[in-house]
Every structure is written in structure tokens, then in C-alpha cells.
Amino acid sequence: MPTVSTLQAERLAAKILEATGTPADIAANVAHHLALADRSGHASHGLSILPSYLSAAAAGQLVAHARPQLMSDEGMLLAFDGHQGYGQHGVKVATEHAITRAREKGLCILTVRNSYHLGRAGHYGEMAAHAGLGYLAFINVVGRPALVAPFGGATARLSTNPLCFAMPIAPDRAPFLLDYATSAIAANKVRLMAAADLPVPEGMLIDSAGNPTQDANDLTGTPPGALLPFGEHKGYALGFMAELLAGVMSGGGTLASEESRTGGLRNNVFAILFDPGKFGQTSWQRAEGSAFADYVTGCPPAEAGMRVMVPGEPEADHQSASAEHFEMTRSAWDLFANCARAHHLSPEACLWPR
Q1: Strands 134-142 and 163-167, how do they pair?
Q2: In terms of pTM, does the model score above 0.85?
Q3: Strand, helix or coil at 5?
Q4: 3-state SS assignment for residue 351
Q5: Residues with Cβ < 8 Å from 222, sequence gap 6 or more?
Q6: Of residues 163, 29, 158, the one with CA closest to residue 90
Q7: pLDDT tens track of the chain, all 354 residues?
Q8: For the chain, how big is the Rg over CA atoms in Å?
Q9: Among candidate residues 224, 236, 212, the one with its CA nearest the CA of residue 163
Q10: With contact defined as beta carbons under 8 Å apart, do 185 and 214 qualify?
């Protein structure tokens, strides 16, 4: 697998974005987010997704120069419109505002509507947790056909609708981080599996006839198949919840109408940010949280060579180990490298060691 320089890969991604009309500050935020997703162990939301963004921009479905607009400010309630711009910039800016407000008031409820793909949801949870705040978010997806079948259904009616929860534990520990789609697998992971000709694990995908399949290409077939919700009825219920909170409360809409399933991908967000220190003594909270983490991770492993980890530790470990360089799969590298070459930029400068 190719190994790339973290710094050079991020710089190259920013150059590609700027070459296609993205303002420098927006390009920098998007490039940093994508590279950090790769560095966190989530290649499905990393640099390999850049070509699809540029295709969406060329088709008018993504507005490269769009900036988020504050639509409503009611003290502890903030509402933004992303105007179909890069979510890695727009949602970041909105989250920064919410962090400031939560520190002032102890609590902030944030909505963002009409953002293009916001990337790895855990990125915003990490922002809040590193600022000492708790973070709970639900996200829905409109502007494209449904991808996820409801529990008991044979065709798609929902999207992948991720949820994220993050919270600091103690200064010497990685924050707790939960970030996953309410589908059994993320759609972008299936995309990479199809590109690499890899099978999808059992129980995650059905074909257009509603039959179980492991062929990643069935998801985008004609007619298309569907992802299944994780945990059967449990994941389905959480996905439905995301439609109500993120879609309805933000004003960005749900997948209810045919019009809402066309026009280009749009994410809507409903997030709650809170200051744990407003609920009790910070010193006790840190000691208790750390003690619980020690208790859980002290559990004997089920298999030799394994260890119990706090959710969020794998991402933190990946990020720590990839400060200078990280590996990409061959298929992911090819998508990124070919994108650079298409814009007359050399990807070879990213390879490590140079």
C-alpha cells in the first residue's frame, strides 16, 4: 500500500480544490478534514472521496465558494444554512460558533441545513470534546435516492443517517467518541469495496429484489439494491430519529418527497453541545470517568493479542501514529492521484519517503 506524507497530501488536496475554484480558506479546511479522516483510520471519508466532490461541483450540486449563514440566533439556539457548500468548512464554522456559545451558556443546540457532504461526523465531536464539551449529533441525508431499507423492508427508504457522541474523559485520555452510520455499513465503504472488487460482509446489503448479497456493485445497480440498518430494528429506529431531528428541526427536510431525493447530496444536522462542568465538579467528573474507563478496559480480552478499548481510542491512536505519514489502499491512492493528475498536479510529491 502506498505511504504518503501527511503534510504533502494535505497540501496537494488543497491545491486541487483551489484549482477548481474553491477559496483558499475553504480548501484548507476541506483538505485538512479529508487527510485527518485517512489518518483516523476512516479512508471511506478521506482523500479518495475528492473526485466525487469535484464531479458534484462541476454538475452544480456543490457550490465551492459557498459559506455558512447564521439564520437564527436565540441565545442557546443557533441555526445555520450551508447553502450547498463544502460541509467540511460550513459545519466546522457552525460548530466553532456553537462551541463558543456552549462555553458561555453551558448549552447550545445547533442546527445546520443544506450543507453538502460534511465528511466524518466524528471530526466535529472531536472539536467539541477537545474544547472540554460534550457533543451529541444526528445527521440526515437528502438530495439523493434513499440507500437504506427500513427494518422488514425490501427497498430503500432512508439514508445512512449517522449519529455522533463525544465527551472528554480526562486530560490524559482520548475523548470518548461514537461515530457511525445507522446503516450496517457506510455507503462510501461499499464504494471502496466495489472499486477494490471486495465482497461486502454478510448481513449488510440486499439486491434490488430484496435478497441478501455480498456484491458491492449491487448497491448502485439498475435497479439499485439497499443497505440494511445495523442491529435490525434498533438501527432503523435511530435512522428514523435522525430524519425527525436533523431533517425536520433544521428545516432542511427529509426523504419524504420525490423532489427531496434529487438535486445533489445535502446534509442536515441537529447537535447538542454542553459543558460538563455545569453539572458538577470537574475534578470529580474526570476522576470518575477515568476510573470507569480503567474498569472497562481492564476486562480480560476474549482473544489473545486483543485489548478492550474506549470508543475513540482507535482514532486517537491512528492520529498519533500518522502525524508524519499514513498508508492508503491502492484503490484509494489511485482515486486521489488520478484526480491530481487531471488537474496537472503531481501526486508523486506526496509519496513517503520522498
Answers
A1: antiparallel
A2: yes
A3: strand
A4: strand
A5: none
A6: 29
A7: 899 999 999 999 999 999 999 999 999 999 999 999 999 999 989 999 999 999 999 999 999 999 999 999 999 999 999 999 999 999 999 999 999 999 999 999 999 999 999 999 999 999 999 999 999 999 999 999 999 999 999 999 999 999 999 999 999 999 999 999 999 998 878 988 998 899 999 999 999 999 999 999 999 999 999 999 999 999 999 999 999 999 999 999 999 999 999 999 999 999 999 999 999 999 999 999 999 999 999 999 999 999 999 999 999 999 999 999 999 999 899 999 999 999 999 999 999 986
A8: 20
A9: 236
A10: no
DSSP letters along 180-193, please?
E-SBSS-HHHHHHH
Whose grid coordinates read 472540554? Answer: 132
Q: How far is it, in rounded angstroms, from Cα 2 to Cα 108?
A: 42
SS3 292: helix
Residue by residue, DSSP assigns 53-119 as HHHHHHTTSS-TT---EEEEE-SSEEEEE-TT--HHHHHHHHHHHHHHHHHHHSEEEEEEEEES---
Q: How far apart are CA 186 and CA 290, in angstroms?
A: 31
Those residues whose C-beta lies under 8 Å from the C-beta of residue 76, and which sit 6 or more positions away, are 101, 105, 107, 108, 109
Go through the domains of the chain in sequence order and give each one's CATH number: 1-65+324-354 (1.10.1530.10), 67-183+229-316 (3.30.1370.60)
Q: CA-CA distance, 24 to 297, in Å (whole number)?
A: 43
